[in-house]
Amino acid sequence: MNAPLASGRKPLAPQGMTVVELMVVMFIMAMITGLGAYAMGMIGGSDIRNDTVRMNSVIKYTYSNASINNTRYRLVFEVGTGNYYTEVTDEPVVAIDDTVEDQELLTEEARELAAQREKETDLFDDEESNPFGINRKVSFQRVNDVVIKKTGLSDGVIIDKVYSPRFPDGPITEGRASMSFFPNGYQEQVLIIIKDDAGKAYSILTEPFTGKIKIFSEEIEPPEGFGEAEEDDG
After folding, report:
1. What are phi and psi for residue 215, nearest 5 degrees?
2. Is residue 207 in some structural domain?
3. Which of 17, 54, 74, 77 fits a disulfide with 180 by CB distance 3.0 to 4.6 angstroms?
4. Among residues 187, 190, 162, which one has the least CA distance to residue 176?
């Protein structure tokens, strides 16, 4: 027979993880993902495959950092080269579907096309442009993260093109493109095509609301509904 509990004392009930404990777990997972990206360079196999897996890890790591640090990040791709890097801002987000800060990343010709498209679809006349006086431009700073400091592709491997729903006229094939990560768990959907000098291609497709990433060992076209909210299929 069990001894009775002391007067005034109640049995302890199991408790769930605290917010701090969850944040620590997320940080550890992000670090493991980032370190795993470095380890990919030591695994045998083709350079383009390893580069694709490593970019996948960098995207996941940046996605986790946006939630852990409660701030907005973006990954910048120098299209036509093998370079990409992460930037961060501590300024408040005005809108998720915002192309203003990305205009500076594009070539002059691409900026002119984007400006013409915006003018054609603008709801306001020139005289009443930006009637609320909102400065939507957000400034970003380069992230000097030891885990993802080196984010260049191998020799002979380049970022061939990047598709983004914010630029529906076609893929970005030169200049710079970016995808943003938000503290609420949202990442912009992009389709990144990576190619090597032998013509081999890999595709990386991100999903916005689930944080998932799909990798294809060939070049694909944007799927139907690209940029629209997708359902989580579990």
Report:
1. -115, 135
2. yes
3. 74
4. 162
* Domain total in the chain: 1
Is residue 51 situated within a structural domain?
Answer: yes
How far apart (Å, rounded) are the C-alpha atoms in residues 81 and 13?
A: 57
Q: Does residue 169 belong to any structural domain of this protein?
A: yes
Q: List the one residue out of 50, 74, 52 whose CA is nearest residue 62.
A: 74
pLDDT of residue 210: 86
Domain of residue 48 covers 19-134+141-216
Say what percent of the chain tops pLDDT 90. 39
CB 171 within 8 A of CB 81: no
CATH number at residue 123: 3.55.40.10
**Among all chains, which residue has been given the structure tokens 């973006």?**
74
pLDDT at residue 29 greater than cutoff 70: no
What contacts 24+ positions apart, CB below 8 Å, involve 125-134? 134/94
Instruction: Give the residues across from 177 on adjacent strands.
Output: 77
Judge whether 229 lies within some domain. Answer: no
78 pairs with which residues across the strands? 83, 176
Cα separation, 151 vs 83, in Å, equals 7
Q: How many CA atoms lie within 13 A of 39 on its CB side?
A: 7
